[in-house]
């Protein structure tokens, strides 16, 4: 396996009550802890989708894959995900209010998705997240969230922390334009590959990998390569 597989879609397309049977006890406990049903469904759908990615990428059935997570500071139960049966496989997942995305493949992988807020620029988030060279490039929330999801994806790769956001300068990457799901944007930056798009419902997504990524149009569709 030389490429990474990315799958994304709306929670309602992916979620199934039977998906709980695939989850570990820890995952089921975390799912049950959500106060809102929509948040719980997002969590379950994302954890199902990352198994689906790993299964398609490796040929191992979903029901034979155990998703675990480990935090370098707190220990197991949350943090960076991995597949117990294939610890060398990179995996990542994200969910944002009814939309989920996951990826699996060789090397480090990070994915993040966030809704782009309406209204004026979120100055507080800009002050927290942007490097000095990035600030002049950002005039609206579209550009701000584009940079934010890139940095969150780098965090999930283990290359950045929330405390270091302003030290990571991504000003060499474009922030203009809104790449669509059917025409995602591909970028290369300092040895990393980025695949990104924006959904019609206003979700910005960034996937950062070491190798080329194949994007599935939705959870149930065939996997197609974007060239």
UniProtKB/TrEMBL annotation:
Pfam families: ACPS. InterPro entries: 4-PPantetheinyl_Trfase_dom, 4-PPantetheinyl_Trfase_dom_sf, P-Pant_transferase_sf. Keywords: Transferase. One of its GO terms (biological process) is lysine biosynthetic process via aminoadipic acid. Signal peptide: none annotated. Transmembrane segments: none annotated. The keyword Transferase applies. GO terms for molecular function: holo-[acyl-carrier-protein] synthase activity; magnesium ion binding. Belongs to the P-Pant transferase superfamily. Gsp/Sfp/HetI/AcpT family. PANTHER family: L-AMINOADIPATE-SEMIALDEHYDE DEHYDROGENASE-PHOSPHOPANTETHEINYL TRANSFERASE, PHOSPHOPANTETHEINE TRANSFERASE. This is 4'-phosphopantetheinyl transferase. It comes from Streptosporangium carneum.
């Amino acid at each position: 396996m030389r490429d990474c597989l990315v799958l994304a879609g709306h929670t309602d397309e992916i979620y199934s009550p039977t998906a709980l049977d695939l989850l570990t006890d820890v995952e089921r406990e975390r799912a049950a802890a959500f106060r809102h049903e929509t948040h719980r469904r997002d969590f379950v759908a994302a954890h199902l989708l990352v198994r689906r990615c790993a299964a398609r990428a490796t040929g191992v059935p979903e029901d034979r894959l155990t998703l675990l997570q480990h935090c370098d500071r707190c220990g197991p139960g949350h943090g960076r995900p991995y597949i117990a049966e294939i610890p060398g496989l990179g995996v990542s997942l994200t969910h944002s209010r009814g939309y989920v995305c996951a990826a699996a493949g060789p090397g480090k992988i990070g994915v993040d998705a966030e809704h782009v807020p309406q209204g004026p620029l979120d100055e507080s988030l800009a002050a927290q997240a942007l490097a000095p060279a990035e600030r002049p490039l950002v005039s609206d929330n579209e550009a701000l969230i584009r940079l934010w999801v890139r940095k969150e994806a780098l965090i999930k790769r283990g290359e950045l922390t929330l405390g270091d956001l302003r030290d990571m300068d991504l000003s060499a990457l474009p922030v203009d334009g809104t790449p669509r799901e059917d025409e995602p944007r591909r970028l290369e930056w300092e040895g990393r590959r980025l695949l990104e798009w924006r959904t019609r419902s206003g979700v910005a997504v960034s996937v950062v990998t070491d190798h080329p990524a194949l994007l599935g149009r939705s959870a149930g569709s065939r996997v197609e390569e974007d060239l």
